Automatic annotation (TrEMBL):
InterPro entries: DUF2735. Residues 48-68 are annotated as: Disordered. The lineage of its organism: Bacteria, Pseudomonadati, Pseudomonadota, Alphaproteobacteria, Hyphomicrobiales. This is DUF2735 domain-containing protein. Pfam families: DUF2735.
Length: 68
């Protein structure tokens, strides 16, 4: 007859403390003491430039022009 193990240990969830002050409390969101350049580098930005898009526009424009 085989005995079943009835006592086993399961890991419980780990509880982490939220930063005091919410997102403002996280160091990556702090901008105090940073230079203007560092502050600007941390700000979110959107970059619309892409070489492949520019190249496709140039190709399309050159196709419209009559070839000699």
């Amino acid at each position: 007859m085989t005995e079943m193990a009835t006592g086993f240990h399961r890991e419980t969830a780990t509880i982490y403390q939220f930063p005091v002050g919410g997102r403002a409390g996280v160091s990556k969101f702090r901008t105090n003491g940073l230079s203007d350049l560092e502050r600007e580098a941390r700000e979110p930005h959107v970059d619309f430039g892409s070489w492949y898009h520019d190249e496709a526009i140039r190709d399309e424009e050159s196709d419209r022009k009559p070839h000699s």
